[in-house]
Amino acid sequence: MKKLIVFNWKMAPPNLKEAEDVFKITREGARTTRKGVEIIIAPPFVYLSQFTNLSSGRRIKKNVNLKLGAQNVFWEDPQKGGAFTGEISPSMLKNLGVEYAIIGHSERRRILEETDEIINKKVLTALRAGLKVILCVGESKRKSRDSGMTEVKDYIKKQLQKNLENISKGYKLKNESLIIAYEPIWAIGTGDYCDPATASDMIQFIKHILNSTFHILDSKVLYGGSVNSRNISDFISQPEIDGVLVGGASVEKKELKKIFAVL
Ligand code: PGA
After folding, report:
1. Do residues 49 and 20 touch, judged by C-beta distance below 8 A?
2. Is the peptide bond preceding residue 90 cis, with omega within 30 degrees of 0?
3. Are the beta carbons of 67 and 99 closer than 8 angstroms?
4. Does the pLDDT at position 9 exceed 50?
5. Residue having the nearest C-alpha atom to atom 6 of ligand 1
6. Range 129-166 burial, b when 16+ CB lie within 10 A, else e
7. Average pLDDT of the residues in 134-142
8. Is the distance from the beta carbon of residue 183 to the nearest atom of ligand 1 less than 6 Å?
9. pLDDT class of 63 with cuts at 50, 70, 90
10. What's the whole-model pTM score?
11. Residue identifier of the C-alpha nearest atom 8 of ligand 1
């Protein structure tokens, strides 16, 4: 199975010129990378239409695709549009050529106060519109980690149960439609990344829950949190880890080039 590298640009870069520069580095990296990896860029909404022409579905090199993802999506999807000022529907993204949507990122849970219920609605609506969902889960405090992995696993299990509720109701899920990103919150943007063996253990656990509770087999499960050029190989070389979600490093041009140098 090909490893998946998701670049989450967050709220950066500040203008289209810089966004295009970062996009070009990523596209060139995807073209020249040696390993069989799939690359997804999730830029801010305002840059998406600019990039759909440049990337959507086009095979850049045998075994390597560059695809687009959104960082968020709205939970309603009326086909003719609706009175939801400022929101973007899953169908709008799909019609633009966007394939993926990140849902439930911890920054949105914390800063925008997105609840598990909201995230569940977004997951279901996005899947029904034909988007592939990258659902982020992860525990909030280092403390809970130090008090034992059992507590962490219980927390992640509950998060999955709430966020994926009714996932198979009236809808046949394809394996590649759902991707989970295990992102311990204490590791995001801090430089304090989870050690790859522990991340691998958590990912194995998440796959077990997907399988036993939701009968979902073969979904990819990624690791995210302070991934950079120095540690990315340690994560993707773990057999259980199906890829990584890279945040801050994905818009730092030098660092991005270094990442592609080791891919
Ligand atoms: P980071 O962010 O790589 O900057 O820690 C990860 C993320 O966006 O979840």
Report:
1. no
2. no
3. yes
4. yes
5. 247
6. bebbbbbbbbbeeeebbeeebeebbebbbebbeebbee
7. 90
8. yes
9. very low
10. 0.95
11. 247
- Closest atom of ligand 1 relative to the 105 alpha carbon: 9
* Segment (H or E) for 180: strand 178-182
Report residue 168 as tokens.
Answer: 């198979």
Cβ(185) to ligand 1 under 6 A? no
pLDDT exceeds cutoff 90 at 236: yes
Regarding the beta carbon of 107 and ligand 1, being less than 6 Å apart is answered: no
| C-alpha 45 – ligand 1 centre gap (Å) | 18
Q: What is the pLDDT of residue 54?
A: 60
Q: Is 183 a catalytic residue?
A: yes
Residue 153 has pLDDT above 90, yes or no: yes
d(CA 181, CA 225): 10
Q: Which residues, at least 6 apart from 30, have a Cβ–Cβ distance to it below 8 Å?
A: 39, 60, 61, 64, 65, 66, 260
Q: Determine the distance separating the centroid of ligand 1 and the alpha carbon of 170, expressed in angstroms.
A: 34
CB 2 within 8 A of CB 63: yes
Ligand 1 centroid to Cα of residue 83, in Å, is 32
